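=== RUN LOG ===
request id: a7f3
mode: sequence -> structure
chains: 1
length: 549
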Amino acid sequence: MTETAELGHSAGSDRHGDDPGHAASTQRPGAWALVRGQIAHASRDAWRTPVSMVVTLGLPVLFLVISGLAAGASPGVAGDPMIQRLVPGAAVFAIAMAAFVMLAYSIALAAEQGVLKRLQGTPLPAWAYLIGRAGAAAWVAIAGTVLMVAVGILAYDLQITPRLLPAAALGLVVTILAFAALGFALAMLLRSAQAVMSAAMGSVVLLGFVSDMYGFSGDMPSGFAAIGWGLPLRHAVEVLALPLQVDASGSGIAWVSLAALLAWGVGGALAATWAIGREASRTGGQRAGRRSAARGGAFAYGSNRLAGMVWGQVRYANRGIWREPVFAGFALVMPAMFVVILPQVVGDPVIDGVAFSTSMVTGMLVFGLALTAYVALPEMVAVARDRGILKRLRGTPLPAWAYLTGRILSVFWITAITTVIVLAAGWLLYDATPATAGWPALILAILVGVACFASLGMTIAALVPNAETVPAVALATFLPLVFLSGIFPLGDTLPELIPAIAAWLPIAPLVDSVREAFATGRLLLRELTVVIAWTVLGVTVALARFRWQ
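=== RESULT ===
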């Protein structure tokens, strides 16, 4: 049963259940029955995709565990233990992932695949489908919040004040509503599922640093603090953190932040309404024509010369990336933004003999290449496979291997641009430049890293059965390694076992190789050997398991 058929079936069957006496009834279910059925359907759909649950709930839990280990019993706001601030931040992380990131992505994907359009031919109104998606996201957000509180109580002795629980519940409801409205707006404005995922995930992860979502206890520069207070994440943290203060007085309700969240929610709802009206006024033929032209470009550079065919596919792949300006900005700008913002937030301390800013420059070189090769590349290939493009290549003069080679080489091109931007930011702001003789070793380490993560990205495309799940799998395996592998220098705050394990995974050895090449110009042969071994493993699995249709 297709998704649209199942949706239409749930709209008609929810009211009467399995009673055959109602089989011929033409009475439509009421509004509440429609919404209830769609919430149940969307909830089942979410739990049938465990990878999305790993991304939505697993990442905040991982963040809470790591930050809790790093903070220990250190004091935070108002002298309370730091965990009293970390748990609200992790809860906001989970809420934003469920009610903003995954909700926006699911709606954009439904629009992209024509599900919303096909609803017009079923008894189910589009509004019931959308409310059902939002309701399911709300349940996941509530489950995530409960999970963060449970981890805080069981592992870190989080203290709860019972009389302030109503204030926390009010803040939770308003936060979910605000982020759901913003998720609707993002999905309706961008429409592309890939662009929505990149923009939503990137904004939550990046803006969390200036919104106190990660619980930085140091003094933040006034400019960044002002930016944080203008964002919904900061106010969400405040409305959930105030009821968890150990000696909080009064009602525990952060009225100003609550009002700010309501304003953001209303703004998101208005933006979504405007975008829906704009989309309804467009003709479908123009968009279909653009998509057909873009897909046709895959064959536009067919040639009898191998180099010409590969070069044509590189050009085509690059055009496809730049047609998604949000993703291009996410992949190119986000690493540089980390370089700009984080040293300002934490004060650029010296960690392990290296300035924090310099460590961020080298870390973001690895972050940028892995983001493009490991997250973006497999999704592009999986989408082409699901749409039948790879299968149709067999009826054209273009070999399938030339198509894939073009995409892999385009990753090297995007990585080169990202590298230039990150190095320029480090040089202009912190005078962080590679050693005079370090360029050859640095370039070699970056090239080896791109090859490694491109091969691992192709492995994901080979093993994951559909394009919808590929971004979730990639991000679920990528982001935890980012925090565990030294891309963000944490000093000696992690347990010894974590760096020992990370040393045999691909990111940490690559980070060490890039940092050593940047600082001294030397190649770390052991670390590069580990990266090359992962490359061989990725190529082997990808070749053995890749499917063309």
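=== NOTES ===
The chain has 22 helices and two strands.
Confidence is low (pLDDT under 50) at residues 11-26, 283-304.
=== END ===
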